[in-house]
Design a protein that fits this description.
It is a single chain. About 65% of the residues lie in helices and about 0% in strands. The protein is mainly alpha-helical. Among the domains are: about 20-90, no CATH class; about 90-230 and about 255-345, no CATH class. The chain has a two-stranded antiparallel sheet. The chain is globular. It starts with a helix and ends in a 21-residue tail after the last helix.
Length: about 475
């Protein structure tokens, strides 16, 4: 068996050498991105083509090429290929938009859990704060405080115009950071499992408040949610200018809804890039090293003079701000918010993205977010639709001669999302506990110390000689 494996590795050694040295990675990355984009362009319903198209972003990042080359290909992919592919199939815009949103959320939670070592099970509460902030002020809700939930008088005006959306991006970030600090002040007295329980309770408190603040004053409209919520007003002439560029490639003129899908994708991508820059700078700073010290041993960090409470509050504030700004984007994109969008399982979903990608790893968290979103929205849904089509046919399963139409609907893969995610986490904890892409700092910390060679000048030339 060992001989067979060595032969197989020997066969792939030239290919690996070709793809990692010289001009090989440059040519491979460009060809892979071009072929996957062409495939998904002409075959809009192919799941494999779309997965390969998403994988091209990973190859751009991972292949050993110059940063300038990575930047050029990344811009072509993000600003050229994705708008064209997404305009031809709107569902692709939805998938990539959710990847950007949840990647930003996972980066924020990664600061709290991966960098500072604070287990937060109520992180989605900050997401809800940002969403309800714009949901209340960007809708008619403040004119309906004395109305019965679900009843809106005709001609009710909006409180603010859509131009205020961009200001509320900053307000959502600031408000969520302040609430993160206010949460951290009392709960940082506890550690470990008790901290997880307290943050879990905070997340449920926010959800229950959103569900019940429809009386005596109808602030959140209760379980019915707030709708319609305004989208931002875009500059006049922008839609026609974008259509003039995309229409020849897409084959038709984009409508207003499709144009807003493109806008929210670009906005979420821009916010994600800013989050990545902030997290990278924090990780390489004095603050990041302090968080790492607190994560490894809080008592030792305090003994070295690190203000533990202040740095913990900073982790809560920064992580919460990422969720707050994405909550505002989510509310404007959906034009609807309700308490059911911010339940406990959302927090568990974001935490699973962090664990799957790798605690403390920035690229790992993004890859974990993309894997969970694609598995949830694309793979499982496609399998369920495929089984549904088989049930409507007269086909039978070979060998056992079982008719597909007799297969129960309870076996649809989409209904087993949580079980599948649980199995994935179990497997990861057993075989790869550091995640798909472990953090470099964690790898260095766990590396065995190097053995230093004795200095020739200080070593005794004749160890047998004794003084």
């Amino acid at each position: 068996m060992a001989t067979l494996l060595s032969r197989i590795s020997g066969l792939f050694a030239p290919v690996h050498r070709l793809l990692t040295t010289g001009k090989g990675p440059y040519i491979f990355t460009a060809i892979f991105m071009a072929l996957s984009a062409i495939w998904v362009y002409f075959d809009q319903q192919s799941l494999i083509a779309f997965l390969l198209f998403l994988a091209s972003a990973w190859f751009i990042y991972a292949m050993p090429t110059r940063p300038v080359y990575k930047l050029i290909l990344g811009l072509i992919l993000a600003l050229g290929c994705v708008p064209v592919v997404g305009s031809r199939n709107i569902f692709y815009f939805e998938v990539i938009f959710q990847i950007c949103v949840f990647a930003a959320l996972a980066l924020g939670l990664n600061i709290v859990v991966g960098f500072a070592g604070l287990l937060n099970l109520g992180y989605v509460a900050f997401y809800a704060v940002g969403a309800y902030l714009w949901g209340i002020f960007g809708s008619q809700q403040l004119y309906l405080l004395q109305s019965i939930p679900g009843t809106t008088p005709p001609n009710t005006p909006f409180l603010l115009s859509g131009d205020w959306f961009f200001l509320f991006l900053l307000l959502g970030m600031v408000l969520s950071a302040v609430i993160g600090i206010l949460l951290g002040l009392p709960v940082l007295r506890v550690r470990g499992d008790y901290l997880a329980i307290v943050t879990l309770g905070f997340g449920e408190v926010i959800r229950v408040l959103a569900n019940n603040l429809d009386k005596p004053i109808n602030l959140t409209n209760g379980p019915q949610g707030i709708t319609p919520i305004q989208r931002p007003v875009l500059p006049p002439g922008l839609e026609s200018a974008v259509n003039s560029l995309l229409s020849p490639l897409v084959g038709r003129t984009l409508g207003e809804g499709e144009f807003y899908n493109l806008f929210f994708y670009l906005l979420a991508l821009l916010i994600l890039i800013l989050c990545i820059i902030i997290v990278r700078r924090l990780d390489d700073s004095k603050t990041g090293r302090a968080w790492a010290a607190i994560r490894e041993d809080e008592l030792a960090a305090a003994a070295m003079g690190i203000p533990v409470v202040r740095y913990k509050l900073g982790a809560f504030a920064v992580g919460a701000s990422f969720a707050g700004i994405m909550g505002v984007v989510f509310a404007a994109n959906r034009t609807f918010v309700s308490p059911e969008s911010f339940n406990f399982m959302q927090s568990i979903g974001v935490l699973s993205m962090v664990i799957l990608g790798g605690l403390g790893s920035i690229p790992g968290v993004i890859v974990g977010s993309a894997a969970v979103v694609v598995l949830n929205l694309q793979v499982l849904q496609s399998l369920s639709l495929y089984l549904s089509s088989l049930r409507q046919s007269s086909a039978v399963i070979p060998i056992i001669n079982f008719a597909w139409r007799d297969l129960s609907n309870q076996l649809d893969p989409a209904k087993y999302q949580r079980m599948l995610f649980g199995l994935i986490l179990i497997v990861m904890m057993i075989y790869r506990p550091s995640g798909l892409i472990p953090a470099h700092r964690r790898s260095r910390d766990n590396a065995p110390p190097a053995v230093s060679e004795p200095d020739e000048d200080t070593a005794s030339p004749n160890p047998e000689v004794k003084n």
